[in-house]
Amino acid sequence: MSETGKFTEDILSSAREKAKAILREAETETQRASDEAKVTITREAEAVIRNARADADAVKRRQISEARHRVKLREQQEKEKIMEGVMDRVQERTSQFVANDPKYLPLLARLIENGVHELGDGTVLVHLTKLDLERNIPHLEQRISKSVGQVKVDWSRDPIQAVGGAVISSIDGKIRIVNTLDQRFEALEPKLLIEAGKALFGE
After folding, report:
1. Alpha-carbon gap, residue 18 to 70, rounded angstroms
2. Mean pLDDT, the chain, whole residue set
3. Would you say 152 and 169 are in contact if contact means Cβ atoms under 8 Å apart?
4. What would the pLDDT profile of 121-175 be if each residue is shown by its tens digit?
5. DSSP states of 3-29 as a string?
6. Which residues have C-beta within 8 Å of that of residue 158, sequence separation ≥ 6?
7. pLDDT at 203 over 70
8. Where are the alpha helices (H) located in the chain, listed in sequence order?
9. 8-state DSSP, 177
10. Rounded to whole angstroms, how far apart are CA atoms 64 and 11?
11. Could you report the per-residue pLDDT of 70-85, keeping only the tens digit for each?
């Protein structure tokens, strides 16, 4: 082999070695980049999955919370309906008591007497319901007159709007004692609701 050929072969051999080294380095770099990319992609995918799971859990918790709230609200509405029914039944029984029970008229007399005594001396005006005005008023007037002493009692012929009981007022109407069953019922209603709630729902 001539010197030129040998020189050329050395150059080519050196170039081939450099090319192989460059290829090896490129393959190594490619592999490293690929590995890093896999790690990065895996990490990002895991993060996406974690976030998706967290979002799904949050949605599930919110849905459960909303469902519980709807159930609780529906339960409360049903309880309120039942309690309204109880109060309606109490009022119905009260109306029946006023209309039919012989114990009502003595109660009415006491309500009137209490109101008259509360107003004091002078002249008072007693207001009754339409039903009570249609009852035996002279008998009631006699009983009240005997029990109130010096107080003069006048009886209004204009009925009040109430289930039962009476309103006792001064003649000028400036002072009024409301002794109706409606007023008593209204005052007792919160306690009745509590007691009914305990009896019906254990609350």
Report:
1. 76
2. 80
3. no
4. 788 999 999 998 888 677 788 888 777 778 888 889 899 999 999 999 988 888 8
5. HHHHHHHHHHHHHHHHHHHHHHHHHHH
6. 127
7. no
8. 3-100, 104-119, 130-133, 137-147, 181-201
9. E
10. 77
11. 777 777 777 667 767 7
- pTM listed for this prediction: 0.58
Tokens found for residue 59: 């949605």
Between the CA atoms of 62, 64, 68 and 69, what dihedral angle is there, to the nearest 10 degrees?
20
Local structure of 178: helix, strand or coil: strand
Closest by Cα among 121, 118, 119, 140 to 129: 140
Which residue reads 């008072």 in tokens? 124
158: amino acid identity, one letter: D
φ/ψ (deg, to 5) at 164: -170, 180
Cβ-based neighbours of 166, under 8 Å, separated by 6 or more = 108, 111, 112, 115, 126, 127, 128, 132, 160, 179, 180
Per-residue model confidence as pLDDT tens digits over 99-117: 888 898 889 999 999 999 8
Sequence length of the chain is 203
User: Which 3 state secondary structure label does DSSP give 145?
Assistant: helix
Single-letter residue type at 108: L
Cα(91)–Cα(128) distance, integer angstroms = 18
